[in-house]
Design brief:
Helix content is about 70%, strand content about 0%. It is mostly helical. It has one domain. The longest helix is centred in the first third of the chain and has 17 residues. The radius of gyration is 18 Å and the shape is globular. The structure holds 2-acetamido-2-deoxy-beta-D-glucopyranose (4 copies). It holds the Pfam family Ins_allergen_rp. Keywords: Signal.
Length: about 220
């Protein structure tokens, strides 16, 4: 189930990347591949369903609301801003852009999404814990995992451009850049906060290490 989670997360990520207004992508991978295959992948994501799930949770899920409210706080915004300024983060961002993966865009999208929501928390004693678990489970269950996995599998076997992308993404340089970012105290803090909200990034890193053949992920 965990591998499926990773793949679903990657599919969502690629999906968001492709919502990008077209920015010039350097020539690390053929851009015609990016345009066409990502478009096909994107069509597998049930966007309306995901939107509906979000609104359902905003109505019924106090823990989801508490988490969103926390992400609207100055404390959270300051943490994100601090990470944005780090050279390690800027270097990783620049590197991934050569693969057509735009982290800045994903974060801007998430920020705009969170900022746009009006949260009214009913007074509750004790106040509800911030927790995204139930929301994430619902979103995962709405994704056509088998179709997404088949799609990626088929591309990895048959499409030389996808193989090239995979090979370049799985090199040591990528791993080193990711490790530099994870080592930042602010990023550790962010990962801990997400963990507290039921989002386990360490699991995802472990899966990513397995996926790219990087050996064991050393947790901190
Ligand atoms: C989303 O919600 C709207 C309004 O309730 C409904 O008409 C529509 O069928 C839903 N779509 C999906 C894919 O669940
Ligand atoms: C923000 O809310 C408005 C009005 O509900 C909506 O049209 C717009 O798409 C939302 N923007 C984002 C980034 O979610
Ligand atoms: C990648 O890093 C590992 C561990 O540091 C090393 O054993 C391996 O030789 C490196 N591979 C390349 C291609 O540099
Ligand atoms: C978040 O909610 C899930 C599902 O209700 C629960 O299993 C988990 O323990 C909660 N996490 C925390 C940190 O409270």
């Amino acid at each position: 189930m965990n591998l499926l989670r990773l793949i679903a997360a990657m599919a969502l990520l690629f999906n968001l990347c492709q919502s990008a207004p077209s920015t010039p992508v350097p020539k690390a991978v053929p851009t015609d591949f990016l345009a066409n295959e990502f478009k096909n992948l994107k069509s597998l994501i049930p966007k309306e369903r995901v939107r509906n799930i979000t609104y359902e949770h905003l109505e019924t899920d106090q823990n989801f609301k508490a988490a969103i409210k926390y992400m609207q706080s100055e404390e959270w915004k300051d943490l994100i801003e601090a990470i944005r300024d780090k050279p390690e983060w800027i270097a990783l961002k620049k590197y991934l852009r050569e693969f057509g993966i735009d982290l800045e865009l994903i974060i801007n999208y998430a920020e705009a999404f969170v900022a746009n929501i009006t949260v009214t928390l009913e007074p509750q004693d004790p106040p509800p814990k911030k927790n995204l678990s139930l929301f994430i489970i619902d979103v995962e269950q709405s994704l056509p995992i088998i179709a997404i996995v088949s799609f990626l599998h088929e591309k990895l076997i048959n499409n030389p451009s996808v193989q090239e992308l995979f090979e370049k993404l799985s090199n040591n340089e990528s791993r080193q850049m990711i490790e530099n970012v994870i080592a930042l105290p602010e990023v550790k803090c962010l990962i801990k906060e997400f963990e507290y909200m039921g989002v386990n990034f360490l699991d995802m890193f472990s899966l990513m290490y397995t996926f790219f053949g990087w050996g064991e992920f050393k947790s901190f």
